[in-house]
Design a protein that fits this description.
Strand content: 15-25%
Number of strands: 7
Structural class: alpha/beta
Length: 179
């Protein structure tokens, strides 16, 4: 399965890097392909290293202004003109999406992917990997949106919240028929 992962390119604390590395190793050992922002820094590097070292493939989609930070040894690397094209290419190349910890860029990617799914522009599974409770507040906000009528489809049809990588991958494999 080709799994797009949205996540931070920042160097982060071990409470985020260790679970990210563990998830990456699960992907690689499972023979999955990582589709990611292509960066050779921060958490993006941690995940790419883990997938590659565990036998998985790497498909990167960088952007012109970040091309100097793109991973040189990816199995495939595409350089998009801008962030909008990058997001479209990431979704196009993936069978599923996992949203890991990140900043405003990750949040932008997450909300766009969910908005597209809400409007039927894709039907790929979306998992929010809630490492160390990072997305507890967002989950609460989404629940409020659903409860107060702002979501025209059930929240469970848009996104699956996983507390760890094992749960995230199990959900995706069940969705794809691999389990």
């Amino acid at each position: 399965m080709k799994i797009c992962v949205f996540l931070s390119a920042a160097d982060l604390d071990d409470r985020y890097t260790r679970p990210a590395r563990d998830f990456a190793e699960l992907l690689g050992k499972g023979g999955h392909t990582l589709v990611w922002g292509g960066s050779e820094s921060g958490l993006m590097k941690v995940v790419a290293d883990g997938v590659q070292e565990s036998g998985g493939q790497l498909v990167g989609v960088s952007v012109e202004f970040l091309a100097a930070k793109a991973r040189a040894d990816a199995d495939e690397m595409v350089i998009a003109r801008d962030l909008a094209e990058r997001k479209a290419l990431l979704l196009e190349k993936a069978d599923a999406v996992v949203i890991m910890v990140g900043g405003t860029g990750t949040l932008d990617e997450a909300t766009e992917i969910l908005e597209l799914k809400k409007h039927g522009q894709h039907d790929k599974p979306v998992v929010l990997l809630n490492t160390a409770g990072f997305y507890d507040g967002l989950r609460q906000q989404f629940q409020r949106m659903e409860d107060e009528g702002f979501l025209p489809v059930p929240l469970t049809d848009l996104v699956f919240f996983a507390k760890d990588g094992v749960g995230a991958l199990a959900y995706l494999e069940e969705w794809s028929g691999l389990r």
